[in-house]
Design goal:
Largest interface: A-B, 50 and 50 residues
Mean pLDDT of chain A: 93
Oligomer: homodimer
Largest sheet of chain A: none
Number of strands of chain A: 0
Helix content of chain A: over 70%
DNA sequence: TTTTTTATTAATCATTTGTTTAATTCAGAT
DNA sequence: ATCTGAATTAAACAAATGATTAATAAAAAA
């Protein structure tokens, strides 16, 4: 058993994640975290040394968990390009519905500190993945328009992720409930792959 | 002459904008602002009462300036749908190249407080704009696929804005210089309108 | 049980941070 | 030149915040 886990340690991490996602690093105080997790303030430093260390751990774990479920998708040699896009959309959207604040959190906190992101093992390979190889092949065959592959990747992520980042504004503007918004995102699981293919097809 | 302007007042606002964009509201201290603008700390409260008031002013002005240049675009009855998309892309991208931190800043700070956004006069009308009318007409005529217009709008903004929000990560991952990134965004001014049209055309 | 290590607590420290005050300088009006 | 109100400054205040300490409780090892 790797019950190397302490109940309080977990509680702190969960509370910290909730608050960091919602308020960001500098918007969250150690006392907020202590209160949210019902632990004594000193326990935070006892288990994690400092607010910053705690933050780093949460950022790493969050990011790792998110990325690792993805890498395999666009590196699977058994699926076609179109299948990859479908699976990618579906998974990303599902994951982000579960945690809608995640993209905004990650992009913001890494803004002034993107180097720490590079420490992730799964990061650098997207542009050298099977997905890109297949796209390039399609270009060579004359099926797809020739555009920098980076645009292709950006577009996929843009269409998937961005709506979540402006969901608070969207919901206010269009008077959407959380469920209506969720419904729209569910729709997009099927729509985006079509759009992407239409975009690149000649 | 409305030289109702005070040199120091301006200096404070400029410094505050720079810092708020870079570090966010809670990541910026009043002393940071004082130092950046070379004014005495007390002048901030003398002119703006509080850090929060100063922030509200900057958020409002920034947003207003940004939005007002856009509303006219998608409400112009003289341009076609495709022209609107082209102009929209071109302007948004130009503006965001000038101030790449703006989207991230706005979306983040409004995340927990989107109501203040609704106070903007130019906000609510996008979904009732000429752009949407023309899209709906196209659908009726059978030229365009029938999809919720909200998706159509989201897609445009996603493709335009999102790349800027992940530019720090993109640049690190792909080893891009600022100018190379800018080049990619310039390319997109022409690419996005094509993509959008391809996406909606039957 | 006794001892030793680990976990938890309340209190405290040292900075940081937003804001205010009281004194001083400056500019324009009289 | 003098007076008046606005602009500026250094200093200080009070609250918030990250972190530590010393004492206590709980758990594990002896």
């Amino acid at each position: 058993m790797d019950s190397n886990f302490s109940q309080t340690e977990l509680k702190i991490k969960e509370a910290a994640k909730t608050l960091f996602l919602k308020k960001g690093y500098s918007g969250t105080t150690t006392r907020d975290i202590a209160k949210e997790s019902n632990i004594n303030l000193a326990m935070l430093n006892y288990y994690f040394r400092s607010k910053w260390k705690l933050f780093e751990i949460i950022m790493f774990e969050t990011l790792y968990e998110f990325l690792s479920t993805m890498v395999e998708v666009y590196n699977d040699p058994l699926t076609s390009l179109e299948e990859k896009i479908e699976i990618c959309c579906s998974r990303y959207i599902d994951k982000t519905i579960e945690e809608p604040l995640l993209p905004s959190f990650v992009l913001n906190e890494l803004k002034n500190n993107p180097s720490s992101f590079l420490k992730m093992p799964t990061t650098k390979m997207i542009m050298k993945s099977e997905l890109i190889l297949q796209y390039n092949e399609g270009v060579k065959k004359g099926i797809y328009n020739k555009v920098e592959p980076i645009h292709f990747v950006i577009n996929i992520f843009s269409l998937i992720v961005f709506p979540f980042m402006c969901s608070p504004i969207m919901m206010k503007m269009e008077n959407l409930s959380k469920n209506e918004f969720k419904g729209l995102m569910e729709e997009r699981k099927k729509l985006i792959p079509n759009w992407i293919i239409q975009m690149i097809k000649k």
